[in-house]
Amino acid sequence: VYKAAPAAYDWRGFYVGAHAGGIWVDGDFTAIPGGTGSATGSSFIGGALIGYNWRLAPNWIWGVEADFGFASADSATIVAGPGVVQSELQWNAHLRARLGYTMNRTVFFIAGGLALAEVEQFLPGGAATVSNTLAGYSIGAGIDHAFAARWVGRIEYLYDSFSEKNYNYVPFGGGLLASSYDSHTLRGALIYRW
Question: pTM of this prediction?
Answer without folding.
Answer: 0.88
